[in-house]
Amino acid sequence: MFKKLNKKGFTLAELLIVVAIIGVLVAISIPIFTAQLQKARLATNQANARAAYAAATAALLASDVTATEGNFEYTVSTASVGTLQAYDELGTTTAINSWDPDTSVGGVVLGTTVAKKWTVAISKDGEVSFDASAT
């Protein structure tokens, strides 16, 4: 006669509490992930600048040109170094390890964008400077 009602499941209040907890956790984690993303972009730029320096040095040593200075354009996607160009003074000479996320090299803020091309300038006296391009 009397049917027993099936009362399995969650109440609306329980579901709202779970959704609120998840919302709080997401709100806390977004700034943390953003900071980590900025650190990852900076580390990528530092690694690419080191690779550009190594490739430019190798290209300078391997070239038949007797010059001891020049600009080399390093394309990150193909890991290739362009030809030796005439030397001109570039923006920064600060050490790669001392870059912070807000450092700007060639108009690229290093913690917000991963530069796709690096120009490495090597002077007669061994000074090395970098310029970055996001395109």
What would your notes on this structure say?
This protein has one helix and six strands, in the order H-E-E-E-E-E-E. It has one domain. It has one helix at 12-62, and strands at 70-75, 80-81, 104-105, 108-109, 117-122, 128-133. The N and C termini lie far apart (77 Å). The chain is an alpha+beta fold and 135 residues long. The strands form two sheets. Strands 2-1-5-6 form a four-stranded antiparallel beta sheet, covered by helices on one side. Strands 3-4 form a two-stranded antiparallel ribbon. The radius of gyration is 26 Å and the shape is rod-shaped. 38% of the residues lie in helices and 18% in strands. 18% of the residues are buried. Strand 1 and strand 2 form a beta hairpin.
